[in-house]
Fold this sequence. Notes:
Largest sheet: 5 strands, parallel
Radius of gyration: 20 Å
Strand order of the largest sheet: 2-3-4-1-5
Order of helices and strands: HEHEHHHEHEHHEHHHH
Strand content: 5-15%
Amino acid sequence: MKWVNTPDPENQIMWLNGAAGVGKSAIAQTIVEDVKNTLISSFFFSQTFTSTGRDDGTRVIPTIVYHLAIRIPEARSLILEELKRDPAIFHHSMEKQLKSLVIDPIMHLKMNGDLLTPCLVIIDGLDECNSTDIQSRIIKAIAGIAVSQPLQLRILIASRPEHEIQKTFDLPLVINISTRLTLDWKYHPDQDIKTYLLDGFNIIKQTHVLASELSGISSWPAWYDLAKLVKKSSGKFIYASIVVKFICDDNHDPR
C-alpha cells in the first residue's frame, strides 16, 4: 500500500468505490490482514448484523478511539485525559470527537517521536450505514479536519457510489484532500482474484486441520482448477471469497 506510506496532504482519504460484488470488502479485508503494524482501526458496516450495531454510523468514531487506545498504549493516557476533561465529548460533533480523541493524540505522539509508523483507518461498506445523513457527516468530519491540519493518518473508505456518498465526495472540501479508485468495467480483476485465491489457499495449507498433508502437495491447487475458479468468479471477488471460506472449513477435506 504505497498510498499509506506517502505523506501527501492531497490524498489523505482514499475512496474505494464500485458496485456490489466487485471486491471492495475483499480488498479492504486483505489490506487489514496485510498491514497489521500500520492499521489503527477498522469498521465494517453491515445491514445483516444490525443487532450488533454494525449499521450504526454513530459508533464509528468511538470504535476508532477504542482501537487506538488498545493498539497504541501510549495514546491511552492522552485519550483518558481528554475524556476526564470533557466526559460529554461523545455528544459533541463527529469532527470534535475525531480531532480530540484520535488526531490530537496521534499528532502528540508523532511530534514526541513516540510513533514512527504510518497509521491507517479503514471504513468499509459506508453505504450500509442506516442513515444517509450520517454517511455524509462521517466524510465531512474527516475532511473538515484534514483541510486545516494534516490528519496524521490515512483513511480508506469503501462503499458503493450511492447518491449521498457520491455527492459528498464531490464537494470541493473533500476533493482537495482525497483520491478515489473505482472498480468498474475498466477494471480487469482476474489477476487480482487469482492472487486472492492463491493467498487464501496458502493460508489454508498452513492453518487447516489437514495442514501437514496439504503442505507437502506443491501442485495444490492445480493450475487448471485455479483457472476454472477465476473464470467462474466472472470478475466478482464475492465468489472467490465464498469459495475460500467454504474450502477452509475444517469439517471438509479441502482437496
